[in-house]
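Protocol step 4 of 5: obtain the predicted structure for the target chain.
Materials: sequence only (see below). No template structures provided, no constraints applied. The aim of this step is simply to have a reference model before the mutagenesis design in step 5. Sequence pasted as it appears in the construct record:
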Amino acid sequence: MSPGLHEPQPPIAAAAPSKGSALAVGSLSTAQDGKYQSLIANLQSFRTVDRQMLDRLVDGATFLDASTYSSVHVTLSASEYQVLLPKAAALLSQLLDGLQPLGTLHLHNLTSVDSFSSELTLAGFTILSTDNTLIAQKPAPATTALSLKRKKTDPATKKALWTLSAPTAPPIDAEALLTPADRARPVPTCEPVTSGAPRRKKACKGCSCGLRELEEAELLASKTVLLDGSQEGEAVEVSHEERERLVRAARAAPKATSSCGSCFLGDAFRCASCPYLGLPAFKPGEKVEIDFGMDDI
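Step 4 output (structure tokens):
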């Protein structure tokens, strides 16, 4: 035992909980020598006392309700304290849970004060006194220094807090950042087109690279495959000029008249001067249309 361990020490200032029920924890040994009964009698003089035997708490046969007791008093023999020491952590944790905030734990008849002081500290207790009886206290719940009351915020201050721009910063004129070169419209330019080389899909408006002329020449030289309008429906390849003639004939077809009345049946029933010559067969009265979906086949 450390020298001066049992010398009187100044008590540590701590707020005491309101007086409530106490818990007396004893053993078969202290019940036989009368120490347990004496402890209960002293406590019952000013408060309600619950009783528990040590072995039931250590073996897990019973558990304490949380924050129930204002104080817990343990009285054991010296040998029982030595046997309890290796299992003290679990017991002290249960006693800490059963105490009210700022409740106290009293270990009576304790001889090995140093060992239990360390265990109490590790369990979360605050040591108050080691004079005759080792007394430890359950700390109060952690509290915050901030006030729980919400402070009303001025509407103008709240608006300033949520604004996305600093109120003192002048607005930036984006137009003023542009240079004359930025304002100048880019002149569309393209490289001269070469026949047979990869090129754009279609000539642009106002084409000056020669692509439009090349497209027109290819269009004039291209062939169009049409159905001849006969019953067999054979494919006929015609030139660009013939294709244009057929388009004009199809546009004028609703206005044309027939002397024989068989023009709608197809070329096999048409005369040489028939305005529908070369057009597919159609139903009487319907508009004649040509499907050029087979172009360039």
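Step 4 remarks: The chain has ten helices and eight strands. The beta strands are 22-26, 49-53, 69-75, 99-108, 126-129, 134-137, 223-227, 235-239.
Proceed to step 5.
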